[in-house]
């Protein structure tokens, strides 16, 4: 039961994080301002979310793992795929996490994994790639999206660098060589 609610919470974070990243990318003055590799990486997150959901639902995916999608087309795809995920998760019952899913991956290899493991993998995979998108934004001189889990929980971005030392937690002093 606990694993069931944790997975649903992790997916709530994934939906929120995708939306935050989408807002960040679409808030740029034009799609030309967003690095093309960042858009490609974000499209990969969405494509993989769709591919894993299609495997869980025993249907053909509507997107490729690395889809070629325009930044502004991504907005509709994100909402559509998140809607499907929300429906799937709403139907999911704790015993379902142990069900086995047989599928063929994009390299043509056959696998058999439990639903719970697939759900954890897909959510963690997305967070890994969100980090890559944020790195690409930062490298382009743009502001990354605050997609940390703790930011989701707090409703506020995680701390960056504080200009003061919190009480009881002194900042470590640099080591000097002797």
Q: Can you describe this structure?
A:
- By secondary structure, this protein is mainly alpha-helical.
- It has a single domain, classed as Four Helix Bundle (Hemerythrin (Met), subunit A) (Up-down Bundle).
- Helix content is 55%, strand content 6%.
- A two-stranded antiparallel sheet has the order 1-2.
- The longest helix is centred in the first third of the chain and has 25 residues, at 2-26.
SSE topology:
Elements: H1 2-26, H2 36-56, H3 71-91, E1 100-104, E2 110-114, H4 115-139, H5 149-154
Helix pairs in contact: 1-2, 1-3, 1-4, 2-3, 2-4
On the 0 to 100 scale, the average pLDDT is 89
Give the terminus-to-terminus CA distance: 55 Å
The SSE string, one letter per element, is HHHEEHH
How many structural domains are formed by the residues? 1
Widest beta sheet: strand line-up:
1-2
* Beta content: 5-15%
Q: Kindly report the CATH topology.
A: Four Helix Bundle (Hemerythrin (Met), subunit A)
Which structural class should the secondary elements be placed in?
Answer: mainly alpha
Structure keywords:
about 180 residues; mainly alpha; Four Helix Bundle (Hemerythrin (Met), subunit A); two-stranded antiparallel sheet
In short:
The protein has helices at 2-26, 36-56, 71-91, 115-139, 149-154, and strands spanning 100-104, 110-114. With 178 residues, the protein is mostly helical. A hairpin with a 5-residue loop joins strand 1 (100-104) and strand 2 (110-114).
């Amino acid at each position: 039961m606990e694993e069931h609610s944790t997975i649903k919470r992790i997916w709530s974070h994934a939906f929120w994080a995708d939306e935050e990243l989408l807002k960040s990318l679409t808030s740029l003055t034009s799609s030309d301002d967003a690095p093309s590799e960042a858009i490609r990486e974000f499209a990969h997150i969405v494509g993989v979310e769709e591919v894993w959901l299609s495997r869980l639902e025993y249907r053909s995916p509507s997107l490729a793992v690395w889809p070629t999608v325009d930044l502004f087309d991504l907005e509709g795809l994100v909402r559509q795929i998140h809607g499907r995920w929300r429906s799937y998760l709403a139907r999911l019952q704790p015993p379902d996490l142990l069900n086995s899913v047989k599928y063929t991956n994009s390299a043509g290899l056959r696998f058999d994994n439990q639903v719970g493991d697939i759900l954890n993998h897909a959510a963690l995979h997305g967070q890994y790639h969100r980090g890559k998108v944020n790195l690409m934004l930062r490298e382009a001189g743009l502001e990354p999206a605050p997609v940390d889990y703790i930011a989701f929980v707090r409703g506020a971005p995680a701390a960056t660098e504080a200009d003061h030392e919190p009480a009881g937690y002194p900042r470590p002093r640099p080591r000097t060589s002797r």
